[in-house]
């Protein structure tokens, strides 16, 4: 799926896909540091809901091998100085992000809530953590509202899509 996505977005010649779990230190051993690490930790602890029997779905949604804490540890091992680890987390798990980063030696630098539809609670949060150099106040723009009350995509969401090169 990653290969297909990078090809579709015209990025296949700029990335290298490694098959494996990036939480495994052996996967990136000897590779040096990276200017950006991204990830989407599984959103739910084991035992908190029904799991799909499809091979990729259950571990994507449930913490079979750790959650945001394990992702922060893995990212901290390979981040270049000042480079961000950008990820998202389920809104209901948001309280775990900052302590997980702190435990891995990372500090919260950016935080943005994403609301699926005006009037609803946030669904998830997108955040950035960097190697702790100095304490600072995280950048916290207003939540991104994806759809208005009538279900239409908001102008801000359309601008985000355009900035990413996605069709209107």
Write down the Rg.
17 Å
Class from secondary-structure proportions: alpha/beta
SSE pattern: HEHHEHEEEH
* Order of neighbouring strands in the sheet with most strands: 1-2-4-3-5
Overview of the molecule:
With 168 residues, the chain is of the alpha/beta class. Helices cover 23% and strands 20% of the residues. The protein has helices at 2-8, 57-61, 68-78, 97-103, 155-163; strands at residues 37-39, 84-90, 106-117, 124-131, 144-147. Helix 3 packs across helix 4 (97-103). The protein is globular, with a radius of gyration of 17 Å. The two termini are 22 Å apart. The model has no long low-confidence stretch (mean pLDDT 87).
Summarize this, please?
This protein is 23% helix and 20% strand. By secondary structure, it is α/β, with parallel strands linked by helices.
Please supply descriptive tags for the structure shown above.
168 residues, alpha/beta, 5 helices, 23% helix, 20% strand
């Amino acid at each position: 799926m990653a290969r297909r996505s990078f090809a579709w977005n015209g990025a296949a010649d700029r990335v290298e896909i490694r098959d494996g779990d990036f939480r495994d230190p052996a996967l990136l051993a000897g590779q040096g540091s990276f200017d950006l690490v991204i990830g989407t930790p599984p959103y739910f602890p084991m035992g908190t809901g029904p799991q799909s029997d499809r091979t990729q779905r259950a571990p994507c949604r449930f913490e079979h091998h750790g959650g945001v804490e394990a992702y922060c540890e893995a990212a901290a091992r390979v981040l270049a100085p000042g480079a961000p680890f950008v990820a998202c987390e389920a809104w209901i798990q948001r309280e775990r992000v900052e302590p997980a980063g702190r435990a891995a030696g990372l500090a919260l630098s950016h935080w943005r809530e994403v609301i699926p539809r005006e009037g609803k609670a946030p669904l998830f949060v997108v955040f950035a953590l960097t190697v702790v150099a100095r304490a600072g106040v995280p950048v916290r723009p207003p939540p991104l509202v994806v759809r208005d009350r009538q279900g239409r995509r908001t102008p801000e969401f359309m601008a985000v899509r355009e900035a990413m090169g996605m069709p209107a």
